[in-house]
Design goal:
By secondary structure, the chain is an all-alpha fold. The protein has 13 helices and no strands. It has one domain (6-304).
Length: 307
């Protein structure tokens, strides 16, 4: 099993969030709808990984039950992505990525529930700062109601994915690349079924990408999917799912800056918006400090054998 220290895990986590800051841009750069976009993204990522494992002949043996579990977790990730991009297309990049910060709030409840642990009052308070920040940013603005609702639903599935991944990390000793491979494959199957069903029911979503779409999808699949989730799975071996999801709240800051530069989305950046982002940053800072302090305390206890 891959062993990573807390400091190394935090570095990998923050690097993954920096990369994740670019993912919202693909919702504007790629013309496909949210379902089809996410399906192609996962399919290309899975294909690249299957080819890589075939060439190196290092495919790890996975139990049949664990394959099913990884497929389900990948399906949750796929639905999260589809709703995330649907939110962006129904509103804009800023709306979609800011709603994503609610993942930490949902995780504060889901993680103890699924792991049979206690709900942490501190985690509720810290994630509550994020909730207040999101409320300030949108100040009950109903112009993007559909986009906001889709974004909130996306955050719920994002929390389900990370908590489930954390549980699998604790129960298995598979390499992170193996986990990403099966999750991308499972997500592709789930999204393929959902895309086909949506097309049959409504027939309004374009399913075939343009050559320009294929180029961006390739970049997204390799850089912002395979590499990103390898880092996140490795980070989960050293920090909690709550820490991962709360740190992901930094993603909107990177995404909003890029959206301002490339898509002129500066209309939301008023004083209230800045206060909201400030609260989101504060929540991340508090949790990161708490994780580092806990790790140092544990090391001191181990060094001096303090019981």
């Amino acid at each position: 099993m891959e062993q990573t220290g807390t400091s190394e895990s935090l570095i990998k986590l923050h690097l993954s969030v920096l990369i994740a800051g670019t993912t919202g841009l693909y919702g504007r750069l790629i013309e496909l709808g949210g379902l089809a976009l996410s399906c192609y993204r996962m399919a290309l990522a899975a294909l690249v990984l299957w080819v890589a494992f075939a060439l190196t002949r290092r495919l790890e043996r996975v139990k049949a039950l664990d394959v099913w579990r990884l497929f389900v977790v990948g399906g949750a990730l796929g639905v999260h992505w589809a709703l995330f991009y649907a939110s962006i297309k129904a509103s804009n990049i800023s709306i979609g990525v800011v709603c994503f910060t609610l993942v930490g709030f949902f995780t504060a409840f889901l993680e103890p529930w699924l792991t049979h642990g206690r709900i942490s009052a501190r985690e509720i308070l810290v994630s509550g700062l994020t909730l207040v920040g999101v409320s300030l940013i949108f100040h009950l603005d109903t112009r993007y109601r559909t986009g906001i609702l889709l974004g909130v639903a996306s955050s719920l599935f994002g929390a389900i994915y990370t908590v489930s991944n954390k549980r699998l990390n604790g129960k298995t000793d598979y390499d992170s690349r193996t986990m990403v491979l099966y999750e991308m494959t499972g997500g592709t199957i789930v999204l393929g079924i959902l895309t086909a069903a949506y097309g049959a029911a409504f027939g309004s979503e374009r399913l075939l990408p343009t050559w320009g779409d294929m180029g961006w999808l390739g970049v997204c699949a390799v850089c912002s999917t395979i590499f990103l989730y390898l880092l996140q799975i490795q980070a989960l071996k050293g920090v909690s799912a709550f820490t991962v999801n709360l740190t992901n709240n930094l993603e909107p800051i990177y995404s909003i800056v890029l959206a301002m530069v490339f898509f002129d989305e500066a209309n939301e950046l008023n004083a209230t918006f800045a206060c909201g982002l400030g609260l989101i940053l504060l929540s991340v800072g508090i949790q990161t400090w708490s994780v580092v302090a806990s790790a140092r305390k544990a090391r001191r206890k181990a060094r001096y054998n303090i019981s």
